[in-house]
Design brief:
Layout lengths: L4 E6 L2 H11 L2 E3 L6 E6 L2 E7 L8 E6 L4 H9 L4 E2 L7 E2 L6 E7 L5 E7 L12 H4 L2 E8 L3 H10 L13 E6 L2 E6 L18 E4 L6 E4 L2 E3 L1
């Protein structure tokens, strides 16, 4: 599943633009009114200003297999790496064969670099966004009925990934792209200090039609 575009809300387009430009991503503030468009590898993010927004978005970005240490050092030089008192590197859930480092994004976003070891090794270029940021491969989506949303997605050909879905957390998709379905009550791992946003999110995965998983949560 390829995540082509994600449309999200932000409290501050200026802060969002500065952050992603600081990582070296292409940023366009003129494409749409009151919005900022960011290119992250093969994925386009579009952030639109929303007054009164609550909670935090979660996005994960795939990095080339074999570049974890270098990518971690690179992102740590540009923003704050997040973790627990005991760790700032995390193995993925059982059967994911992945490793992650989390970092502070703009507007309380909880962002993640993830090395998916089932993908072929890559990298080798100079340290920077063009080398490390391949694509957005996870989008966190808060839905009131996680298992119900899983069944809706299953009927559209999208299956749970790796492990059985639960009532609070269910990844759906494949190693290339995942929708991370969570209960609005579940706080974002690993810091557990922020809740999912209930702001509108539109994810373009080439579905061919529009599917509403919850109020304002759309797949296309």
């Amino acid at each position: 599943m390829e995540i082509r575009q994600v449309r999200l809300a932000t409290r501050s387009t200026d802060e969002t633009a500065r952050f992603w430009a600081g990582l070296g991503c292409a940023v366009d503030t003129d494409a749409e009114p009151d919005s900022v468009r960011v290119t992250v590898g093969t994925t386009q993010l579009v952030f639109r200003a929303l007054d009164g927004m609550t909670g935090a978005h979660h996005l994960a970005i795939t990095i080339p297999t074999g570049t974890f240490a270098a990518a971690k050092d690179w992102v740590a030089s540009r923003t704050t790496v997040l973790g627990t008192p005991d760790a700032d590197e995390f193995e993925g859930p059982p059967d994911w064969n992945s490793r992650s480092v989390y970092f502070e994004g703009p507007d309380q976003q909880l962002l993640e670099l993830i090395e998916r070891r089932d993908l072929a090794p890559g990298g080798g270029g100079p340290a920077g966004a063009d080398t490390f940021l391949l694509s957005v491969s996870e989008v966190g989506l808060a839905v009131p009925d996680v298992l119900g949303a899983v069944e809706v997605l299953r009927r559209h050909g999208l299956d749970p990934y790796a492990n059985p879905p639960g009532a609070e957390f269910a990844p759906v998709g494949d190693v290339h792209g995942l929708l991370i379905l969570v209960s609005p009550r579940r706080r974002w791992y690993p810091t557990l200090d922020r809740s999912p946003s209930d702001a509108p999110v539109v994810v373009d995965i080439g579905l061919g039609s529009t599917l509403e998983l919850a109020d304002g949560v759309l797949l296309r």
